[in-house]
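so my prof wants the structure for this chain in the tokens format not the other one, which i didnt know existed until like an hour ago. anyway here's the sequence
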Amino acid sequence: MAVKYVLTAGDQPDLALMGGKAHALAALGADFPVPLWFVLTPLTFDGDGLREAAYPALTAALDGLGAGPFAVRSSAVEEDGEESSFAGQLESHLNVAAGDVERRVLAVWRSAFADSVIAYRAQRGLSGPSAAPAVLIQRMVDADAAGVAFSVDPMDETRQTVAIMAVRGLADRLVGGEVNGDTYRTDREGALRAVHPADDAPVLSATQCAAVTDLALRAESHFGAPQDIEWAFEGESLYLLQSRPITTLAPQSAYTLWDNSNIVESYSGVTAPLTFSFARYVYAEVYRAFSKLMGVSEAVIDTNHTVFENMLGYVYGHVYYNLLNWYRVLALFPGFTLNRTFMEQMMGVSESLPDDLVRQMTVPAETSGAKVIDALRLSRTLVRLVRAALSIERSVADFHRRLRNILANPEVSLANRDLPGLAQYYRSLEHNLLSRWDAPLVNDFLCMIAFGLSRKVLLKWCGANVGQALHNDFMIGQGDIISAEPAQRIRNIAALARQHTTLVDQLVTGDGSTLDEYPQLAAAVGDYLDKFGDRCTQELKLESITLHEDPTPLLQAIGFTARKEHRPEQNQGPSPEARLAVALRGRPVKRWLAGALIRWTKARIRDRENLRFERTRLFGRVRQIFLEIGRHLCERDLLENSRDIFHLEVAEVLGVVEGSMVTYDLKELVTLRRRQFEKFQDRPAPPNRLETRGAVLPALMSHDTQVQSATVDSDSVQGLGCCSGVVRAPVRVVTDPRREALQPGEILVAQHTDPGWIALFCNASGIIVERGSLLSHSAIVAREMGIPAVVAVDNVMSWLQTGDVVEMDGASGRIIKVDHGR
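here's what i got, hopefully its the right format
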């Protein structure tokens, strides 16, 4: 068998013969711009230097690279490894003429046995003497600029930054530490984050930085680990000179991903500690119960108790999903990869979770036995889901009945209960409701699957455009969604008020002082408050002012609706059923399946919204309990005001009654919390999605989490169409629905909405919302009321101003600015 003195890029990679550098270049294959090279294997050398028999192979290989000059470098087996790089320990020579290659090759080979290398090996705990290295010979790039790049900046704990160092000409002085060069930092998309030039004229342009970033990340993806690369520009051509693992990265700190995509509808703005602590407890309890219902064992649930207890986070007073924990809970169920997509669609997250993080949450079955067990678990879960789906109507009815009984007016009113009695009543709600929140959660899960599956089926069977429009239109006008009932009632009350001009003028200002003079109207308003008095703006925030306390928003909505010109409903063209029949003509089975799936999806959406109203009733009762506790604490001079209770946590409030309170001076604690609350309110809101590494509080305080105001330099934007119809009208940008009214025919523009916005929906000719998903409140109620709507429109609050005229297409999600109002 012939001795291999020379190996090239075309040979099979062999670490023992090629050494670290050459093996890495060979592994890159033809997919990377690597200058021509070959490597002299350790077999080329004996104790005196080059073997006589190796000269012909060296000469032929050198001719294959061209006239030169060349780079001559070491390529030892241990060099450029994951544990030890040997950087700077072995010799390298650049711009070597053809006639000088032999001498430089021998110098590189002998450097492997130098005293400094022996000391380096001892320091690293490497046993045995130095092995004979291979020697790499490579065509020299006539570099205009060159340098190194780290696909993961060793100085960035988030690991989301690429670091680039560059000099003009060759990079040998930079690598050797003789010069500093320019430093650039980019994000992983190639956009510049920071530039630190060594002199007045930067070496690289933004385009070149993006190209180096892409090269470094491609090398990282190729090798499956962060890479330290050497690169060079020769004219417009970018070359990869070498790639090796980064050996200086510290162990990665715990990673947390925060997202408020969907929860911002329930907890917008700064949220009081009492609300957050209650919501955090609710999410933990109900999802523990749901996991048990889905067949997750008690042992697994107990093992993941910290996951359940940290599904929500508190970021400068704003409530966020701890998104990775949501995925971790979903990953406890078989079929996670499918459900994950539907969950993302339901929650309206801005981007999917990276696949590498998904893989960390799921342990693939490696053995046949493990695969059988996984299959059995999936089968059992599917059986449970089928049973739940078949009995969901009965389960929902039973839940409504149980809730009505529990929330019926108690025998002893809250106002007549003492502190222990109020605490005991709260504990009973915890026990009887929160641990048995089964029907809403099962229906939510089925709704998530049904909505995602029905949309996917229509898009696949009917085509993307037709399928999307059909799916949106099918969800319109179910007639039995309670979220739309307030709007219907407001229209009916407004019809009664319309004939009384003076009263309407008063109602528009929020004045209901003369309402009793109109008994029929007063009774209708009273009936509204009896049923929907807790359904206010930010209704799930315990500190919110309800309509019971201040009916002004309701009265204004009635007044403005009464002023609105009544228009008979117009024929909207063929029904979605008729259009589905046309789209699936000749495919009766698919038509029947699509119709059945759509009907079931609509039922799950209806129940989802109606059950959310029951949640509002529960939160309303909890609000009343804590306000009564606050009143008692004021009477005992423990608080200044009953509403100060909202600055305490649930455990602190109950601790006062049950004896586990660790802070006795409640007034001082409330003062501290109020001061912090006000600071949070003065800060710009954090971004919709953010990441932290390590301990969360230090990470938040050491990074800028304030939203940078973004501008949209365009006359058109794209959102997510969720209710079809084309409208051209002026917009009104609303930030506080309690203080701002919508004129009839205007398009409502908001960052997000909740059920408390329903009064404004009555006058809207269209709805544009910056946040939200296809299953958000904005989308569902807009569809129910037949109002063209577009959600998930990035930065629309800064793009539009009140008075701007836009044309919006609720089917495609396209919005065009027609005229500037100011």
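also thought this was worth mentioning. The chain has 29 helices and 25 strands.
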